[in-house]
Amino acid sequence: MECPHPTPDATILITPDTRGERIADRVTSVMGSWRFIIWQTAVVAVWITVNTLTLTNRWHIDVFPYILLNLAFSTQAAYASPLILMASNRQSQRDHARDNQEAREVDILYQMNDEQLRLLQEIRQIIGPATPTPDSTKDTPQRA
User: Fold this and answer.
1) Which one of 27, 45, 50, 122 is separated from 68 by 20 to 30 angstroms, measured CA to CA?
2) Of 29-38, 46-55, 114-123, which gets the smallest average pLDDT?
């Protein structure tokens, strides 16, 4: 029976994240939240409103078709996509390593169980067949 030491792929589970990995995880957790979506929707609504209304003649920074807004979204997508992929790939590696580690632990438990059953059979062979005592037959229900 083997001792359950971390294997090379299980080191992913115990290795501390690098600074870049922590930043990627943080950015993707923020960008994947409802709070971010609501704030982004509000900013876009204000942007379009300010640049569309004729009441604010001085504030027309980005007139229709909102090329600056489109550039901002494109830049956001260009940075967000690789970060999301990196975080997703790392999470997939962690899940795979965790699954492998759990499978090894289950195998070890099965080996321990088999060993215990083997020892129990040996003990029964050494002791011999169990003979019921008069006290143990009192509690067992009688069949009709």
Assistant:
1) 27
2) 46-55
